[in-house]
Amino acid sequence: MTDSTSPRHPDDARTAILDGRTSLGIEFGSTRIKACLVGEDPTEVLAVGGHEWENRFEGRVWTYSLADVWSGLQAAYADLVADARRRHGVVPQRFGAVGISAMMHGYLAFDADDELLVPFRTWRNTSTGPAAAELSYRFGRNIPLRWSIAHLHQAILDGESHVPDLRFVTTLAGYVHWRLTGRKVLGVGDASGMFPIGSTTGDYDAGLVATYDALVTDRAPGLRLAELLPEVLRAGEDAGTLTTAGAALLDPSGALRPGARFCPPEGDAGTGMVATNSVAPRTGNVSAGTSIFAMVVLERPLAHAHHELDLVTTPAGDSVAMVHCNNGASELAAWVGLFSEFAVAARAPVGTDAAYDALFRSALEGEADAGGLLAYNHLAGEPIAGLSEGRPLIVRTPDSRLTLANFMRAQLYGVFGTLALGMSVLAGEGVELDRMYAHGGIFRTAGIAQRFLAGALDAPVTVGATASEGGAWGIAVLASYLSASGDQDLGTYLRDRVFAGAAFDTVDPVPDDVAGFAVFLDRYRAGLAAEAAAVEAL
């Protein structure tokens, strides 16, 4: 990816923006909405924008208001426009292509008048246990708590009053795309986190759809699942155009003109795969943010169903095993914030980036097993760890060595703890990887979180230039792929057009880290009983 503050030809970027020979990607992450504008060469970023936002825990439901969705989108877009004006002296008025991406899963339910029936239930909610268990049994495959079908089925099991009025269910990316284009569609990768996708059709598994309709025929008379779900599209397929009303939603200033083509809306897992060139078999990536998950593209079907593994797809429809953990770097960020507050109290304030850098680097001096310390990052429930709710914990024995270095190493290990539990299940299936890529803000401090992840996975970990802003760039790349999809499959396009000259940094596992993390993980697994007791008692 090229920083366009020093473009090869100074007038080219300006002309491309004025002519609309650009692709815009917008991704709704858990804590930040990001916008990214690329030129005809998708590796050249012309402008970026962002907006901070946060989920709310209201009525025991993790949610975002739809008002915050739109105000946040407009703020991120306005920030991108300001960046384009500052860098290139022009305001974008049109785009060649646009893509929307967002957190996967969850439940956005609408009635016949397109009105929201209940507050948006995000992927973070873990109240769908009975539904997920019943569906996993009936379908013969793992249906995670966060999947849209689990949310729908739990609403039916609970006899929620809105169920008879249901006419459409979608994800956050699907919702925003629908409002901007008028089309109720979804990229296959995002759709695979709503309901299982057939292995050969690239659409919802017809047999399981029929099974589900029969399962709820008495409890939800007249419900037909196929009528509720968005149409499924693969990468490169036309997903509509920006309407006049959509342009006004995105840019209330009125400068933006309608007509831009849209690629299928995708989930953050799919854009992470694109941003790391991990869409081919035997490749994988780890995305670390509020949640953390690993995506591994499969060569063959798994032999068994595992509750730790989700079966989803790439944006092109290829099968992927996903290890999804609800809790990522949020607890780590809270501790960095606490140390920053101490620095202010000590009259030696430091910036956020400097605080992360200093604390991460201290972890390099820690003992390989973190000195006997345990750090649990569970702010929310964690199905892989068997937790219905979260209680962040620091646990140590009297003979543990409590130092800043060990504390920070334990915090970084804790980010990868539950992920490592799931990845061990995948290894037991005999799945092999040629390369594992990583992206997310935790990898901005060069080499440190990357090194500890390599130790946790006992595998080389590669980080590229898009590590901290990958998702918005990934959906911008999928938007740009619209113009090439007739000539190349997605994997070839990424390999030959996007990543041919890309620079990557690969870190091999350090043997002492591998051994130390294994000790930490054994202790971590045993200590989950203390975490469960904390959930019960507090």
UniProtKB/TrEMBL annotation:
Domain of life assignment: Bacteria
Coiled coil: none
InterPro entries: ATPase_NBD (IPR043129), FGGY_C (IPR018485), FGGY_Carb_Kinase (IPR050406), FGGY_N (IPR018484)
Residues annotated as signal peptide: none
Record keywords, A-Z: Carbohydrate metabolism, Kinase, Transferase, Xylose metabolism
GO function terms (MF aspect): kinase activity
Domain Carbohydrate kinase FGGY C-terminal, first and last residues per copy: 285-481
UniProt keyword annotation of Iron present: no
Stored PANTHER family: SUGAR KINASE, XYLULOSE KINASE
Name of the protein in question: Sugar (Pentulose or hexulose) kinase
Organism of origin: Agromyces hippuratus
Origin organism lineage: Bacteria, Bacillati, Actinomycetota, Actinomycetes, Micrococcales
